[in-house]
From TrEMBL:
Keywords: Hydrolase. Belongs to the AB hydrolase superfamily. GO terms for molecular function: hydrolase activity. This is Dienelactone hydrolase family protein. It is an enzyme of class 3 (hydrolase). It comes from Angustibacter luteus.
Length: 303
């Protein structure tokens, strides 16, 4: 348990300022009919440039559906982002934006800063440049990433097919890390699933783990850790799925007692056998959790 209680104000101060966004100016570039949903390729303005995302809308909606932000993994593959979680390229086990749309959710899957359409270096790692160019100005890359989560939700919430009162989040690895932070940043997120991304700062000092550029917040780990961030988001039910042999799930078994000490009863930690994967049984566990927490109504009729 931290010596000093983390508050939303302290968190925002630690993350540093973000630029004031202008109008989103959304544009739909393409619509493709898929198996059970329509996939739209969209773009919209964010302070660091033009965001690029897929929005997947289920067929036959009888009423506005819950929205789920689907954050892609890292895996050192900077040419992949939204396309992987929509099942167009990469690992089929990462196609949760497509699978959730088939299940009846509207999903939005943007490229994170430095990935796929947002990579300006022919697929090279630009994360450390994106971090350092902010740090010298007293800003962090994490704050901009979290602001872009909010802007994506803003964009999708304007759609007639979306129930903007029912917003969720899901991610694996890098996406699983952001799934811990996003509900503390944006109170609209009511349910969040983190898969294989819960390693705390205290367990990241090992050389086989280390620190991802997007999660570097100067001074934060001297007082706080991920359980403090999770405890802030009391409006959000959180499911943390961790794998027993996964480096990025390291420390998962210790989260429960620490969360209990902080009174964070809205977080549940589920440890499964295996390595750094998002296998079908874990995805089904995640989807059922989102079904319940977001009150999903199946496409075409009442639940």
């Amino acid at each position: 348990m931290s010596a000093t209680s983390l508050t939303h104000e302290v968190l925002r101060q630690a993350l540093g300022p973000v630029p004031t966004p202008a109008s989103l100016e959304p544009e739909v570039h393409e619509e493709v009919q898929c198996d059970g949903y329509v996939r739209r390729r969209v773009s919209y303005d964010v302070p660091s440039g033009r965001a690029s995302a897929f929005v997947c809308v289920p067929d036959g909606l009888a009423a506005p559906a819950p929205l789920v932000f689907c954050h892609h993994q890292h895996a050192g593959e900077f040419d992949l982002g939204k396309s992987e979680v929509c099942g167009l390229r990469g690992d089929p086990d990462q196609a949760y934006a497509a699978e959730l749309a088939q299940r009846g959710f509207v999903t939005i899957a943007p490229d994170a800063i430095g990935f796929e359409d947002r990579n300006w270096a022919d697929g090279a790692n630009v994360g450390w440049f994106e971090l350092s160019s902010r740090l010298v100005l007293g800003r962090t890359l994490l704050a901009d990433c979290l602001q872009e989560v909010s802007l994506a939700i803003d964009c999708a919430s304007t759609l007639a097919e979306v129930d903007a009162t029912s917003v969720g989040f899901i991610g694996h690895s890098y996406g699983g890390r952001i799934a811990l932070w996003a509900p503390a940043w944006d109170a609209r997120i009511r349910a969040s699933v983190s898969n294989c991304g819960c390693i705390p700062y205290r367990d990241s000092f090992a050389r086989d783990a280390g620190f991802q550029a997007e999660l570097v917040v100067p001074g934060f780990a001297a007082r706080y850790d991920v359980e403090d961030v999770l405890a802030l988001a009391s409006q959000c039910e959180v499911l943390v799925i961790a794998a027993a042999d996964d480096v990025w799930s390291r420390g998962a078994r210790g989260l429960g007692p620490r969360l209990h000490d902080l009174g964070a009863t809205h977080v549940r930690v589920h440890v499964v056998p295996g390595d750094h994967e998002f296998r079908a049984p874990q995805r089904e566990l995640a989807y059922e959790f989102l079904d319940v927490q977001l009150g999903r109504t199946p496409a075409g009729g009442p639940a």
